[in-house]
């Protein structure tokens, strides 16, 4: 289940991609299938081991084209172990709502992104997320849980302040909002409640079968109750005058 829409976020074979806070690796796997050179980074060692296993299985099964590479590694989003301008593409999906210093994370992403590079940021959408917080303290008052709810304009402002130029937004996963409302209403750890189990079966069926009816329903509902807000941006090239000044400064050293 992808949150980033790759029809709006073009990825070329050979692009160097950082999936920051990759979790179980869903976006990293898709980038690998598309021929990218992928680095999947997360602070969770157990998840990174699983992602590495899946990368190896994909390679063995021939799921990635020639030239594609994939690496899974532990790392700190606030201190990325990469030089400046290392990546053509950075993806950070459902991560920033967990991190106190979100401005620091944006600064690190911009640092490692090449000028002209592209970035995709996804976070829980304000409305559906407010419902979850209202229904359940346990949903967010846990170690490593959600510490803030972004309004769309707030996230876009922070991206602009970090030096990025947003170029598109949308919402995703409308069918998942009711599931999380049910989870919060019946207990976030209570998977045995009949409404939760029934709705989960529906979601699994939808993900596996991708029927036209639910695909159309989600497209219609995404603008209203989409669970995720997705923003795309580029890192502008330096203006020619500024670039020339930087080159002169380097030459003078």
UniProtKB/TrEMBL annotation:
The keyword Magnesium appears for this protein: no
PANTHER family: 2-METHOXY-6-POLYPRENYL-1,4-BENZOQUINOL METHYLASE, MITOCHONDRIAL, METHYLTRANSFERASE
Annotated InterPro entries: Methyltransf_11, SAM-dependent_MTases_sf
Lineage: superkingdom: Bacteria
GO biological process, one term: methylation
Record-level Gene Ontology MF annotations: methyltransferase activity
Record carries keyword Protein biosynthesis: no
Keyword tags: Methyltransferase, Transferase
Domain Methyltransferase type, residue spans: 18-120
Protein name: Methyltransferase domain-containing protein
Pfam families attached to this UniProt entry: Methyltransf_11
């Amino acid at each position: 289940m992808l949150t980033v829409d790759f029809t709006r976020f073009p990825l070329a074979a050979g692009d160097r991609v950082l999936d920051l806070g990759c979790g179980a690796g869903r976006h990293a796997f898709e980038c690998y299938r598309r021929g990218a050179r992928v680095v999947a980074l997360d602070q969770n060692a157990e998840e990174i081991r699983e992602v590495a296993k899946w990368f190896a299985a994909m390679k063995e099964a021939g799921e990635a084209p020639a030239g594609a590479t994939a690496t899974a590694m532990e790392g700190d989003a606030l201190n990325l172990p990469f030089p400046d301008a290392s990546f053509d593409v950075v993806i950070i999906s459902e991560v920033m709502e967990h991190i106190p210093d979100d401005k620091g994370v944006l600064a690190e992403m911009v640092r490692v992104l090449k000028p002209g590079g592209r970035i995709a940021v996804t976070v829980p959408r304000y409305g559906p997320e407010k419902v979850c917080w209202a229904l359940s303290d346990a949903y967010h008052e846990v170690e490593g849980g959600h510490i803030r709810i972004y309004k769309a304009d707030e996230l876009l402002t922070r991206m602009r302040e970090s030096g990025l130029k947003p170029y598109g937004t949308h919402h995703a996963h409308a069918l998942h909002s009711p599931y999380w409302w049910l989870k919060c209403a019946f207990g976030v750890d209570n998977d045995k409640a009949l409404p939760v189990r029934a709705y989960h079966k529906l979601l699994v069926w939808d993900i596996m079968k991708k029927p036209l009816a639910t695909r159309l329903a989600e497209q219609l509902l995404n603008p209203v109750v989409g669970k995720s807000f997705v923003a795309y941006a580029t890192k502008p090239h330096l203006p020619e005058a500024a670039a020339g000044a930087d080159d002169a400064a380097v030459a003078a050293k």
